[in-house]
Amino acid sequence: MPLKNNSENTKKVLDYRFSFANERTFLSWIRTALALLAGAVAIDQFVTTVEYPFIRIGLAIILAIIAGVLAISAFLRWRANEKAMLEERALPYNHLLSIIAILVLIAATCFVMLFLVGH
Predict the structure, then answer these.
(1) pTM above 0.90, yes or no
(2) CA distances from 100 to 71, 115, 118 (A)
């Protein structure tokens, strides 16, 4: 017996262009997270001439934490956007972005301190 074509049996399909755009945004967030992680590793391994190593270690840890949070946030944001688009709702705002901006500001401040102490 064939299924009736009603709203319960029809699965909604998202326009692939929007899905691909959402995926590209996800991948750009992941690229940024990887760059931050690479920066953390580089600072930890190659910045050895600092008089106070706690600045170097602290900066590397901050960058690594930001990278991890950004990667998790990228996935959660991608998933929430896909769901919102399928349900034809407005895309959700992510408050974590302002927190990440503050963490990057802290990392930049630590980097300036590292630079000033090293010179």
Answers:
(1) no
(2) 11, 22, 27
